[in-house]
Specification:
The protein has 222 residues and is an alpha+beta fold. The chain has one domain: 2-Layer Sandwich (Heat Shock Protein 90), CATH 3.30.565. 46% of the residues lie in helices and 23% in strands. The chain contains seven helices and seven strands, in the order H-E-H-E-E-H-E-E-H-H-E-E-H-H. The strands form two sheets. Strands 2-4-5-7-6 form a five-stranded mixed beta sheet, with helices on one face. Helix 1 runs parallel beside helix 5, helix 2 runs parallel beside helix 3 and helix 3 packs antiparallel against helix 5.
Length: 222
Amino acid sequence: MKSDLKKINAAGMHLLALISDVLDLSKIEAGKTDIEVTRIALKELVDEVVTTCTQLIEKNGNTLKLNCPGDIGMIRSDVTKVRQVLFNLLSNAAKFTKDGHIEVNVRRDVVAGDAVIVLEVKDSGIGITPEHAKTVFDAFNQVRSSTESGQPGTGLGLTITREYCRLLGGKLELSGTPGEGSVFTATLLADISAAPSVADHGDPNTRQSEDAENQSRQQHQR
């Protein structure tokens, strides 16, 4: 009986995750995704996500190494989406790595004159072939792996992660070698409110969020 209940619960959770991911992707494709710009303590956010993923990482006998300077400072972005980007990349690494190691590197950089943050997740897992690399970000695409257990993923995690990176003024890149591991690198604007595409021409919900934050700050100063 307990075994049956666990299977029913797992199937229900998988279906819920699938519905949630489909709705998120539909909103992105329809241009209806809100962007709420706030100040984010990056080190605290990274530590929070890593702590959340620890059990998932250790489930397959993996170890984790985190490299994130304590003085990396603040950024201005959408905290929910930055969190989801790192969470999805760590979850993906944990899923396709067994008895290996996962490394998270966080740093600041400048790309084409813009200040950015770089979230790099390396793993020693199954890696990826050039053929799979071409389609890994496609919706509902999944790479089969002997390290997987329980319910499969939705096949939308990396698709949504890449779209979130674009919404945050950046990009998501992948490199890897079959049998040796993969490296996912998310490069995001450190201050999305300064980007013309967001500050001047972006979603009105973004501008409203910024206006509300500025008004609240002004009232507090008074």
